[in-house]
Design goal:
This protein is mainly beta. It has 2 helices and 37 strands. The chain has 4 domains: about 120 residues, Immunoglobulin-like (Sandwich), CATH 2.60.40; about 90 residues, Sandwich (Immunoglobulin-like), CATH 2.60.40; about 110 residues, Immunoglobulin-like (Sandwich), CATH 2.60.40; about 100 residues, Immunoglobulin-like (Sandwich). The relative contact order is 0.09.
Length: about 425
C-alpha cells in the first residue's frame, strides 16, 4: 500500500524537467541511483563536513514546495513552502527529497534527489620499524557505503564508496594498498604521503615522516695513480674515498685477494672465500697498492647504533671491481741504428714484472744480444736498450728474432716471441 501511494504521487505530477535546474552548493560529488524496478534515475549528492544546501529554478514558477520522505508514514512531508522565483533549501540532512515548481495553473515540475553527509578522516603512521623494514599504516574513519531505496518497490540499495589508496614517496607511487611494508630503507629523513579518493567525491591526504632513519648507507668511490689510463696495471695505488651516510663512523674495509687466487684457493680447500682478504682497515679513507694483476673485490661495512641498542649495518661492494691487467711488455717492430738521431736504439719496455731475460738471434739462430733484469721494482716502466751491434760491430739490415722469458708479479711465467726489423742503411 505504501508503495502504491508513492506511485500515485509520482503519476499525478507532470514533469517537465528539461526546463528545471536543481543545483547543490558545496557538494563534493554525486552519482545516479540504481533503481531496480524503474528506469528513472535520481541524483545522489554527497557532502563533507557540513549538511547540504540546494537551489531550484524553473522558468515561470512562482512558488516551490520542498518535501522530505518520512520513513514512518511512507510519504513526503513538507519542509519548505517558498514563494520566490528561485528557491533554496539549506542545512539538508540525510534522506530522500522532492521539490515542486508551481505557478497559478498548478505543478510545473518535480525533481527527486538524495542527500548524504559523508564525513571522513584519514591518518597515517609508521609501525614495526627495524633494520630491514618498516610498515606504513593508515586509518580511514568514515562511511564506506550509504543505503537508499527504490521508491517504486521499496527495495534497499547500497552505494559503495569504492575508495582508492595511493602511497607515494621520493621515487613516486610505491603502493595502492592502505598498508605497505618498506624494505628499501631510506637513510635520510623521508616523508610518505597517502592519498585516498572515492566515488562519493571524497579526497583525503595524510603525510607521515620517517624521522629517525635506523639504517646507515655504505658507499665509496676510488681514485688511483693511473686515473685517465685506458686500463690499470700493477703496481696500482688506490685511494678509497668514503661517502657513507647516517653511520657511527665505524668502518670495516675488506680488500679481497684477486678472484683468480680465491678460485684457486677455494678449489683446493685451502681457505674459505670470506677469509680471502689481502688487507683490512677500520680507518675512514685507506690507501692500498696492488702489486699483481687480477680482478679484485672491495667491501665496506658500516654500522649505526640506535635506541635500545639496535645495531643496523650496511655493506657496499665496489662495482665494477678493480681490474689490473697482466704484465706489460713493449717491443718495437723496427729500428734504424744508422746514426741519424732518429730511432737509433731498440727500447724494450716492461712493467709489473719481477724478472726478465731478453734474447735476440739472427736468421741462422746465432745469439747476437742478451740482457736480463732481476729484483725489478714496480713503480715505473723498466727499459732495456740495444744499439744493433754485436761484439761492437754494426749488424746488417735484416730480420732478427727475439725471445723474452719473464716472471710476473703474480709469480706466473711469461714467454713472448717475435721479430724485429733492423734497417742500417
Amino acid at each position: 500500500m505504501k508503495n502504491l501511494i508513492f506511485l500515485a504521487i509520482i503519476c499525478l505530477v507532470v514533469q517537465v524537467s528539461a526546463y528545471a535546474q536543481l543545483s547543490s552548493v558545496g557538494s563534493i560529488g554525486d552519482m545516479p541511483t540504481s533503481y531496480v524496478s524503474t528506469a528513472r534515475q535520481d541524483k545522489i549528492f554527497f557532502f563533507q563536513d557540513s549538511n547540504g544546501d540546494f537551489s531550484y529554478n524553473f522558468s515561470g514558477a512562482t512558488s516551490y514546495k520542498w518535501s522530505k520522505w518520512d520513513v514512518n508514514t511512507s510519504s513526503f512531508v513538507l519542509v519548505l513552502d517558498d514563494n520566490t522565483a528561485t528557491s533554496s533549501l539549506n542545512n539538508v540532512t540525510d534522506g530522500f527529497y522532492s521539490v515542486q515548481a508551481k505557478d497559478n495553473s498548478g505543478i510545473l515540475s518535480t525533481e527527486y534527489f538524495w542527500s548524504f553527509r559523508v564525513d571522513a578522516s584519514l591518518s597515517t603512521d609508521i609501525a614495526d620499524s627495524n633494520c630491514s623494514s618498516f610498515r606504513l599504516t593508515s586509518a580511514f574513519v568514515g562511511d564506506s557505503s550509504v543505503s537508499y531505496f527504490d521508491p517504486s518497490s521499496g527495495q534497499a540499495i547500497v552505494a559503495k564508496a569504492d575508495g582508492l589508496y595511493s602511497w607515494s614517496g621520493n621515487a613516486g607511487v610505491i603502493s595502492t594498498q592502505p598498508y605497505v611494508t618498506i624494505y628499501d630503507l631510506p637513510y635520510v629523513v623521508s616523508v610518505y604521503k597517502l592519498t585516498y579518493k572515492d566515488s562519493f567525491g571524497r579526497s583525503l591526504e595524510s603525510d607521515v615522516e620517517y624521522k629517525d632513519p635506523l639504517k646507515p648507507k655504505a658507499m665509496f668511490s676510488i681514485t688511483t695513480n693511473q686515473d685517465g689510463e685506458a686500463s690499470f696495471m700493477a703496481p696500482l695505488t688506490v685511494n678509497f674515498v668514503n661517502k657513507s651516510q647516517n653511520d657511527d663512523g665505524e668502518y670495516e674495509w675488506t680488500l679481497y685477494k684477486s678472484n683468480e687466487v680465491i678460485k684457486k684457493e677455494t678449489a683446493n680447500n685451502m681457505i674459505a672465500e670470506y677469509d680471502s682478504a689481502i688487507y683490512r682497515s677500520t680507518i675512514d679513507t685507506p690507501v692500498y697498492t696492488y702489486e699483481t694483476p687480477g680482478t679484485y673485490k672491495v667491501r665496506l661495512k658500516v654500522k649505526k647504533t640506535n635506541k635500545n641498542d639496535l645495531v643496523c649495518e650496511d655493506s657496499y661492494f665496489l662495482d665494477p671491481s678493480i681490474v689490473i691487467d697482466l704484465s706489460s711488455l713493449k717491443v718495437p717492430e723496427a729500428f734504424s741504428p744508422n746514426g741519424d738521431g732518429a730511432n737509433d736504439v731498440l727500447k724494450i719496455e716492461a712493467k709489473s714484472l719481477k724478472s726478465l731475460k731478453f734474447f735476440i738471434y739472427n736468421r741462422w739462430g746465432r745469439k747476437v744480444y742478451s740482457a736480463s733484469l732481476s729484483n725489478m721494482a714496480f713503480e715505473d716502466y723498466h727499459v732495456l736498450e740495444w744499439d744493433g751491434r754485436y761484439n761492437g760491430k754494426a749488424l746488417n739490415t735484416g730480420v732478427y728474432f727475439y725471445t723474452i722469458e719473464a716472471v710476473g708479479r703474480d709469480d706466473e711465467p711469461r714467454v713472448q716471441k717475435g721479430t724485429i726489423h733492423l734497417f742500417n742503411n
